[in-house]
Amino acid sequence: MAKNDSAWTTIVLLATLVTLADGLARAGFIKWFAGHVGASVGGLPPTPMIMILVAVYFFSHYMFASLTAHTTALLPVMLAVGLAIPGLPADKLSLALALTTGIMGIITPYATGAALPYYNSGYISPPEFWRLGAIFGVIFLAALLAIGVPLLMLG
User: Fold this and answer.
1) What is the pTM of this model?
2) What does the alpha-carbon distance between residue 109 and residue 133 come to, in Å, rounded to a whole number?
3) What integer is the mean pLDDT of 18-46?
4) Fewest CB atoms less than 10 Å from the CB: which of 81, 109, 112, 154?
């Protein structure tokens, strides 16, 4: 067990990143972030507001160690921001944010528990992992914003 460098690296990286995410919440960064986002999107029609909140939620995942840490810390904040905006349908925002959680696991090596072993395996080089994560993350987010959110708003 002691010779398995990749496994130990995975454990240490994941533990460190989860601790950092918790530190962001305790330092008040999450509350500040929510206030800033809420002030920035006020006054827009509901569909663009949901698109902006989804994009912010998606890209903010770069600051979190896992989907669990990100969802626990930021989903309630994004929902609170959305619910504070008059005319924004809470059910549509909730579903759009939930769909976002399903596609953001590919953007970083620490995005999900399953990504880290791939990252540490050496099968994909670290720069290639980050490059592909960014490319596919943008593709998936664009599809959600161009197809998914407008379809949500119709229903």
Assistant:
1) 0.75
2) 8
3) 74
4) 154
Question: Distances from the Cα of 144 to the Cαs of 11, 61, 76, 112, 130, in angstroms?
Answer: 32, 16, 20, 20, 21
Joined tokens for residue 64: 């979190």
CA distance linking residue 55 with residue 57, whole number of Å: 5
Largest CA distance in the chain: 57
Decide: residue 87, CB within 10 A, 0-12 exposed, 13-18 middle, 19+ buried.
exposed
Contact yes or no for 88/82 (Cβ under 8 A): yes
The alpha carbon dihedral of 94, 104, 4, 13 has a sign of: negative
Instruction: Specify the amino acid at residue 108.
Output: T
DSSP string, 56-90: HHHHGGGG-SSHHHHHHHHHHHHHHHHHTSTT--H
Is 31 in contact with 77 (CB distance < 8 Å)?
yes
Question: Using one digit for the tens of pLDDT, what is the confidence trace for 67-97?
Answer: 877 787 788 888 888 887 778 899 999 999 9
- Is residue 56 within 8 Å of 145, Cβ to Cβ? no
Tally of CA atoms within 13 A in the half-sphere of 43 that contains its CB: 2
DSSP secondary structure letter of residue 12:
H
Runs of H (alpha helix) within 27-66: 29-41, 46-59
